[in-house]
Amino acid sequence: MDFETSMRISSSGMRAHRAWMNVLSANLANVNTTRGPDGKPYQRRTILYESVPYAGSFQEAMESALEDGLQQVDVVGIVPDGRDFRRVYDPSHPDADEDGIVLLPNISAVEEMANLLDATRSYEANLAALNMAKQLALKSLELGK
């Protein structure tokens, strides 16, 4: 595997984890949103990833097929989570129904923060791999002097 390939694979991981952090941030920001543009409570969102073969040149694809079949990560989409809304009794709330029940997003701030920490650490790991590949490429250029 050459330096460019390792940098592209690391950067695909960074893009995927940055997208995950954006989704988690939106979930945290809307933890108490009872009414969105559609009139319903905010629904927790999650991200779908796909592992795809490294998309380099034809020669690189042939060489990587002989290796372990290098994979990079793509974000397939952002989809609503299927969790039911939390039902809270609060008759004074403006969005309460006739029985005084308010529907709130079923988002656990603790779970989202733990996921955000995981996404941040994964992003940092990909960044470290990218920086190491960059340093190795620079060192190999120095050897040629």
Describe the structure.
By secondary structure, the chain is α+β, with helices and mostly antiparallel strands. Helix content is 49%, strand content 19%. It contains 3 helices and 4 strands, in the order αβαβββα. It has helices spanning 3-29, 58-66, 109-143; strands spanning 45-53, 71-80, 86-89, 101-104. The strands form 2 sheets. The chain has a two-stranded antiparallel ribbon with strand order 1-2. A two-stranded antiparallel ribbon has the order 3-4. It is elongated, with a radius of gyration of 22 Å.
User: Residue ranges: pLDDT <50 for 5 or more in a row?
Assistant: none
**Estimated structural class:** alpha+beta
Strand proportion: 15-25%
Rough outline: elongated
How far is the first residue's CA from the last residue's CA? 23 Å
Give the SSE order as H and E letters.
HEHEEEH
The biggest sheet amounts to:
2 strands, antiparallel
Mean pLDDT: 87
Spatial extent as radius of gyration: 22 Å
User: How much helical structure, as a percent, in the residues?
Assistant: 40-55%
Task: Give the total of beta strands.
Answer: 4
GO biological process, one term: bacterial-type flagellum-dependent swarming motility
InterPro entries: Flag_bb_rod_N, Flg_bb/hook_C_dom, FlgC
Family: Belongs to the flagella basal body rod proteins family.
Domain Flagellar basal-body/hook protein C-terminal: 105-141
In short:
The protein has helices at residues 3-29, 58-66, 109-143; strands spanning 45-53, 71-80, 86-89, 101-104. With 145 residues, the chain is of the alpha+beta class.
